[in-house]
Amino acid sequence: MKKLLVSGFLFLLGVTGVQAQAKQVHAGFVLGSPTGLTAKYWLSADEAVEGTVSWDTSNRKNRFHMNLTWLKHKFNFIDLVNNPLAFYYGVGGKVISSDELSGGIRGAFGLGYYFKSLPLDVSLEISPVFYLIPSSTFSADLGLGFRYHF
Q: Among 1, 63, 125, 145, who pairs with 110 as Cys (CB 3.0-4.6 Å)?
């Protein structure tokens, strides 16, 4: 468990460290199910890779979550006072470590509000997950994210 936790944090540090000079990294936290740290690395003007390291202590189980998701953004989905609201969607993978290892395919659908005057964004995301390991099950993550733009 400790090795997986350390690996997750090193993953996030690696993502933020690679592009921090190009100001294409947004890093922060997500509140919800599960709660944790998040970083988004922009590949182009409308595509990004998002990594999240999070934890869930519900049901008396300490579970460590790690996911990596490719995202496509549709900016100006709705224009709110000249601040773009983006719709985004994507696909990736998710791993959970607790008593046993779980893993599966993760989808993502969300709305992101990008402030023009501040280096911040706020997002609301729902992510269906189809687990393949250790057995086939389905669940969904829901989170409210806050990221600073480096």
A: 125
What is the per-residue pLDDT across 57-102, written as a single tens digit (0 to 9) for each?
776 677 899 999 999 999 877 767 776 789 999 999 999 998 889 9
Can you list the pairs that 90-96 forms with residues at least 24 positions away whose Cβ atoms lie under 8 Å?
90/50, 92/50, 92/67, 92/68, 93/67, 93/68, 93/69, 94/65, 94/66, 94/67, 94/129, 94/131, 95/65, 95/66, 95/67, 96/63, 96/64, 96/65, 96/66
What total number of domains does the chain contain? Answer: 1
| CATH (domain of 62) | 2.40.160.20
Range of the domain at 30: 2-149
